[in-house]
Write a structure and sequence with these properties.
286 residues, alpha+beta, Alpha-lytic protease prodomain-like, Alpha-Beta Plaits, 2 domains, 8 helices, elongated
């Protein structure tokens, strides 16, 4: 938990510094595309704040009203992030069409190169930590940062091309095209975030083959247990496992209780992120 929060704090501070650098650089160097890209990075900062709040709430202990914990809060905060990003994309496109576009100075190139280097490090860090901690919030933040990195890389090309518009008049539209491309890229990112988290919020199952294979092998090693089906339901950074097993119909309640306890212990021992287990028993008619 502490590692996840530290990663989110790092992401927030990083995005605030990078976005300030881009926005100020865009204004000073007269680069509308750099300014738009700065707004994109600033949205990362805003959404990191909500991701931080969501991560804190999602780790709350389960209670009578929420027996499976608060893991799905991560999906709600991610939905809000998707909505914010979508609104930002609309603003960038409108600003690109109605705003003024001029030739950016060489300062813009220096600023965007520094920003790209800082963002690349941030993407690698967030994605690695997200996979290591199985944190949906960090992975989503990393993907969002990757989109920002791609748009920043494009802005470098746009700024360089804009400086050749005296020789090639058509390049006077380079800054406009750059802004529109950034806007479209953010639209695509917002759509992906909204789609993924809406599906997860309504109860999406996971098909993680590694987790399923490890569970199957572990459960079937228990004498007298015939595993028929496993379903993994995502709850943010952890899973709930629905198991269907086949047992002798003459099994006693005492033995069934011992088996259930043993299965639960075996599953959690695998350390694959499963916090809750439900068991459905079917009689073995053979």
């Amino acid at each position: 938990m502490k590692k996840e929060l530290r990663a989110l704090i790092y992401s927030m501070v990083s995005n605030l510094i990078i976005s300030t650098l881009k926005i100020a650089g865009g204004i000073i160097s007269s680069s509308n595309s750099l300014f738009s890209d700065g707004l994109h990075t600033f949205s990362d900062f805003i959404t990191d704040i909500f991701a931080f709040i969501g991560a804190k709430i999602s780790k709350k202990r389960p209670n009578k009203r929420h027996p499976f914990g608060y893991g799905k809060v991560e999906y709600i905060t991610s939905l809000f992030i998707g909505i914010v990003i979508f609104g930002l994309a609309v603003f960038i496109v409108i600003n690109a069409l109605l705003g003024k576009h001029s030739t950016p100075s060489s300062l813009a190139i220096i600023i965007i190169i520094i920003a790209v280097a800082l963002k690349a490090f941030s993407v690698i860090y967030l994605m690695n930590m997200g996979k290591k901690l199985k944190s949906q919030t960090l992975i989503m933040s990393g993907k969002e940062s990757l989109t920002d990195l791609c748009s920043s890389s494009l802005v470098i090309v746009i700024i360089v091309l804009s400086n050749f518009q005296d020789k090639f008049p058509i390049l006077k539209y380079a800054d406009l095209i750059g802004c529109l491309f950034v806007g479209i890229l953010i639209f695509i990112m917002a759509y992906g975030i909204l789609k993924e988290n809406i599906l997860s919020l309504i109860g999406e199952t996971s098909d993680d083959k590694d987790v399923l294979e490890r569970l199957e092998k572990s459960i079937e090693s228990i004498d007298g247990v015939d595993l028929k089906d496993i379903k993994l339901i995502k709850y943010g950074s952890y899973y709930k496992a629905d198991l269907v097993i086949e047992l002798d119909p003459k099994i006693t309640i005492m033995r069934l209780a011992r088996l259930e306890k043993r299965i639960s212990k075996k599953v959690k021992k695998e350390k694959v992120g499963i916090k809750y287990i439900t068991l459905e028993v079917e009689p073995d008619n053979d």
